[in-house]
Specification:
Layout lengths: L12 E9 L5 E10 L4 E5 L6 H8 L7 E6 L2 E2 L5 H7 E4 L12 H11 L4 H14 L15 H13 L5 E5 L7 H18 L2 E6 L10 E6 L2 E6 L1 H4 L3 H6 L6 H10 L7 H7 L1
Parallel strand pairs: 3-8, 3-9, 6-7, 7-8
Antiparallel strand pairs: 1-2, 1-4, 4-5, 9-10
Helix pairs in contact: 3-4, 3-5, 4-5, 5-6
Organism: Macrococcus psychrotolerans
Protein name: Energy-coupling factor transporter ATPase
Membrane topology: Peripheral membrane protein
């Protein structure tokens, strides 16, 4: 499993020798390098304290890069380019309540567009299109805080989509939902990825959500320890367990019954049984 190095000007995301520490504390990222190509679905996994959140803040231009380089669509991420990066990257956070700023669903989704000075007619169409994209068009006048958890997250996604980013970062965006809600939200994102050719960076601790990824990046104690396809990553199940990650059910059962470290789908496992 190699850490692919891409073209700073052509790839969606290029991270080169990225390190970071808060003030004089220990390093929370240690010489991390990887590339994400346009249209990829990349899952980033790791235990608490692995560096996932810091990595997100640096890729999303929330904090300045101090050691190493991050390029987003060819833009070198510096404090001078934060606003340019924010036009390219949308972030859906763990708790949608923390993202709501409007009295109604329409107001909330329109907030970012208003900040860019978009004319009302164009803004209204963009808001409605974004809500329809996530099957929430009928909730235009509803108050966000009266929605279910899954509905709130759909509205948060619509608020991001309305700004037309080409990279979406999901920051544990399903972690507050039940299993059915997690599946629904990921299906919404996959539909949007196909329709809009989005690059998706999915930060999660639910490994079952990584099985359809193009590639998985595994973080541990600030370092990138594994990088590869699901088929490659899940041949290293013991390493995943050692760093505190909980294997997907199919892989757990495969190890228990067949003593194999391998990527298996539910259907493949049933056929083996």
């Amino acid at each position: 499993m190699k850490k692919i190095r891409g073209d700073n000007m052509q790839s969606a995301v290029v991270v080169n020798h990225l390190s970071y520490r808060y003030e004089d504390g220990p390093y929370v990222l240690n010489d991390v390098s990887f590339t994400i190509e346009h249209g990829e679905w990349i899952s980033i996994v790791g235990h608490n304290g692995s560096g996932k959140s810091t990595l997100l803040k640096l890729m999303g231009a929330i904090m300045p890069v101090t050691e190493g380089e991050v390029y987003i669509n060819g833009i070198n991420v510096t404090e001078d380019t934060f606003s340019d990066v924010h036009e390219k990257v949308g972030i859906v956070f763990q708790n949608p309540d923390n993202q709501f700023v409007g009295a109604t669903v329409e107001d909330d989704v329109a907030f970012g567009l208003e900040n860019y000075g978009i004319p009302y007619d164009e803004m209204h169409k963009s808001v409605l299109d974004a809500l329809n994209d996530v099957d929430m068009g009928a909730y235009l006048t509803h108050e966000p805080h009266h929605l279910s958890g899954g509905q709130k997250q759909r509205v948060a996604i619509a608020g991001v989509i309305a700004l037309s980013p080409n990279i979406i970062i999901l920051d544990e965006a399903t972690s507050m939902l039940d299993p059915e809600g997690r599946i629904e939200i990921l299906e919404v994102i996959r539909k949007l990825q196909r329709e809009k050719n989005l690059t998706v960076i999915h930060i999660t601790h639910h490994l079952e959500e990584t099985l359809q990824s193009d590639r998985i990046l595994v973080m541990n104690k600030g370092s990138l320890v594994l990088c590869g396809t699901p088929e490659e990553i899940y041949t290293h199940s013991e390493a995943l367990i050692d760093i505190g990650l909980d294997l997907p059910f199919e892989m757990k059962l495969n190890r228990l019954i067949f003593n194999e470290d391998a990527f298996v789908t539910e259907m493949e496992l049933l056929n083996k049984l």
